[in-house]
Amino acid sequence: DSTGNGIEMDVYFDTSENVFFVYHDTSHISRIDAEEIFSVIKNRNPDLSFWMDVKNLFQFNEQEALAHILLLQKKYGLQQKLIIESPTIQCLQSFCDSGFFTSFYVPYFNPYQEEEQILNARIDSLSAILEKYPVSALSGYYFQVPFLKKFFPAFPLLTWTDASKTSLV
């Protein structure tokens, strides 16, 4: 929305039930359905946006997940209110093609703890994959932001900190 307010949620797509369950840690599985959250929010704050970190987006469930998100988007008026994030960049292509704002969750690394040769290899690898699979933005830990800004300035960045309850776009 215009104030930048929104909710980030880690979701897992369950193909057997055709739902996105909301939870962060696989050792604490939840049965909270993302649709329940959309339903409640629609009545309380219809302008709120959502950042959906799809933790298990793979080729085998990509089309079903996309179809379900499209259904939710239409049902709850979420056009231009969803960020779809995944570490599986090739699976984000169909979401891009469907008009979603997508973010590639950059693999974990700390640029302050790696040698220049390794960082150069990361730059080359990320450049190649981003050229092959376009996305709207990049996501990474707060300490990756200076590195990502420097070498990938064309991309908006989504970030968070470990101990914070806040994520930033």
Mean pLDDT: 91
How many strands, what sense, and barrel or not for the largest sheet?
8 strands, mixed
Order of helices and strands: EEHEHEHEHEHEE
Strand content: 15-25%
End-to-end separation: 12 Å
| Continuous helix count | 5
DSSP, total strands: 8
Radius of gyration, whole Å? 16 Å
Regarding quaternary structure, how should these chains be classified? Answer: single chain
The strand line-up of the biggest sheet is 2-1-3-4-5-6-7-8
Descriptive account of the structure:
Helices cover 35% and strands 24% of the residues. By secondary structure, it is an alpha/beta fold. It has helices spanning 34-44, 62-76, 89-97, 116-132, 145-151, and strands spanning 6-14, 19-22, 49-54, 82-86, 101-105, 137-141, 157-160, 167-168. Strand 3, helix 2 and strand 4 (82-86) form a beta-alpha-beta unit. It has an eight-stranded mixed β-sheet with strand order 2-1-3-4-5-6-7-8. The mean pLDDT is 91.
Nutshell version of this structure?
The protein is α/β, with parallel strands linked by helices and 169 residues long. The protein has helices spanning 34-44, 62-76, 89-97, 116-132, 145-151; strands at 6-14, 19-22, 49-54, 82-86, 101-105, 137-141, 157-160, 167-168.
Features:
35% helix; eight-stranded mixed β-sheet; alpha/beta; 169 residues; 8 strands; single chain; 5 helices
